[in-house]
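HUMAN: Quick job: go over this next protein and say how the chain folds.
***
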Amino acid sequence: MSGRTTRQRAAVLRVLTGCQDFVSAQELYGLLTTDGTRIGLTTVYRALRELESSGGVDVVRDEAGERLYRRRPDDGHRHYLICRCCGRSRPVDSEVVERWAGRIASDTGFTAVEHTVELTGICAGCQPAPDEGEPPPCHWEPARDDLGRARACAS
């Protein structure tokens, strides 16, 4: 993370690293305050912006356009398949996308080309049994444990 590493910024990174799936800034803020960390929502947003600009997080948008964050693995940028019902995510092989983006940059003479690819679907755990018909329309609300924490995050 660029800039001065503060106690609050280190806490944002620690909690974000414990999340297996994408989380919003608001959810991350809730996890931090539930954990007893004294931090402002503005500080959470600032830390996430710095992580994004330094390549420390992957970012996707949900159906409403809200930015969701996930700690980027040390081996770099990934693309994810995200369940529209429960929000569970899994990295997908996207080498073909990376080659395509590189070829477009080369063919057009553009530099510093960035791209976003978002794949969504319904995971096996959210699919209805064969005799239940079509799955219900899903709008992801992160599952919560008994303490109100997002299920996808370790604490």
